[in-house]
Amino acid sequence: TLLFFQEKTLGGQHWVITAGPTREAIDPVRYISNHSSGKMGYAIAQAAVNAGANVTIISGPVSISAPAGCKVINVESAEQMHQAAMKQSDNADVFIACAAVADYRAADIAPQKMKKSSQDMSISLVRNPDIVKDVAAKANKPFVVGFAAETQDVETYALGKLTSKKLDMICANDVSIATQGFNANQNALTVFDKDSSTEIPLADKAMVATQLVKLIAEKRS
Ligand code: CTP
Ligand code: CA
């Protein structure tokens, strides 16, 4: 195990982490989702537990098991994740948005399985709430950390999100590189706050998570 911490470094702190994909129903048997595995969010949760934090994971559907000692709130849709995040962030010290939230959901969920016809079809989509932005806009907000998975212009887009969502920190990763993309076991991050950037080089997600937790702990103190 990775022990960069005195066991009680984060003792008494509540860290809330969103992880995994969301699933947006189209009808009773179909949904829109993405390839997020939840591995990065769960690795951050493990690292925060190792450092002594009380950790709540708000998780979309994933196939991995949660680290021992975490409270897990399982959700499916972005709206459910939003509701849980607004509630859990009330008494949080740190909020980390690691989930790959679907940006859109079906305007209407068909009550019965949709049947095909000879015609092509289209589904109308409406915007989901921006979870991390709404948490960062709260009056009594925690230290808020976002992620930006990008395939091009990584720094520009990440800094844009840091500003527009009023985040304290954003972790940019270039998912055009297969070894550090969605579902990979490794990751590499460039972490930005308003006046600095820190490179966390390519390594197993457990190692990257430990360094990130350490960095957050330093920056918020
Ligand atoms: N995020 C969120 N709620 C959403 C969409 C995104 O909380 N509805 C969070 C993600 O968890 C991540 C950050 O916002 O921490 C950036 O997500 P990303 O998808 O990269 O950015 P978007 O603002 O959705 O922009 P786009 O997908 O167009 O790049
Ligand atoms: Ca998005």
Task: Summarize the SSE layout with pairings.
Blueprint: E1 14-19, E2 24-27, E3 30-32, H1 39-50, E4 54-59, E5 71-74, H2 78-88, E6 94-97, E7 104-106, E8 125-127, H3 131-136, E9 143-150, H4 154-164, E10 169-174, E11 186-193, E12 196-204, H5 205-220
Helix pairs in contact: 1-5
Cytidine-5'-triphosphate binds at residues 18, 78, 97, 99, 101, 103, 128, 130-132, 146-149, 161.
Give a brief description:
Helix content is 25%, strand content 29%. It has helices at residues 39-50, 78-88, 131-136, 154-164, 205-220, and strands at residues 14-19, 24-27, 30-32, 54-59, 71-74, 94-97, 104-106, 125-127, 143-150, 169-174, 186-193, 196-204. The strands form 3 sheets. The chain has an 8-stranded mixed β-sheet with strand order 5-4-1-6-9-10-11-12, with helices on both faces. It has a two-stranded antiparallel sheet with strand order 2-3. A two-stranded antiparallel sheet has the order 7-8.
Key phrases:
binds cytidine-5'-triphosphate, alpha/beta, 8-stranded mixed sheet, 221 residues, Rossmann fold, globular, binds calcium ion
Written as H for each helix and E for each strand, in order along the chain, the element string is: EEEHEEHEEEHEHEEEH
Report the β-strand fraction as a percent range. Answer: 25-35%
Task: Identify every distinct bound molecule in the structure, by name, code or SMILES.
Answer: cytidine-5'-triphosphate, calcium ion
Total strand count, please?
A: 12
| Radius of gyration, in angstroms, nearest whole number | 18 Å
Count of structural domains: 1
Secondary-structure class: alpha/beta
Count of alpha/pi helices: 5
CATH architecture: 3-Layer(aba) Sandwich
- Adjacency order of strands in the biggest sheet: 5-4-1-6-9-10-11-12
Query: What's the level 1 CATH class?
Result: Alpha Beta
What CATH calls the topology is Rossmann fold
The CATH homologous superfamily is named CoaB-like
Q: What's the average pLDDT?
A: 94
Shape: globular
What summary fits the major beta sheet?
8 strands, mixed
Cα(first) to Cα(last) distance is 25 Å
Low-pLDDT segments, ≥5 res: none
Kindly state the percentage of residues in helix: 25-40%
Keywords: Decarboxylase, Flavoprotein, FMN, Ligase, Lyase, Magnesium, Metal-binding, Multifunctional enzyme
Catalytic activity: (R)-4'-phosphopantothenate + L-cysteine + CTP = N-[(R)-4-phosphopantothenoyl]-L-cysteine + CMP + diphosphate + H(+); N-[(R)-4-phosphopantothenoyl]-L-cysteine + H(+) = (R)-4'-phosphopantetheine + CO2
Family: In the N-terminal section; belongs to the HFCD (homo-oligomeric flavin containing Cys decarboxylase) superfamily. In the C-terminal section; belongs to the PPC synthetase family.
GO cellular component, one term: phosphopantothenoylcysteine decarboxylase complex
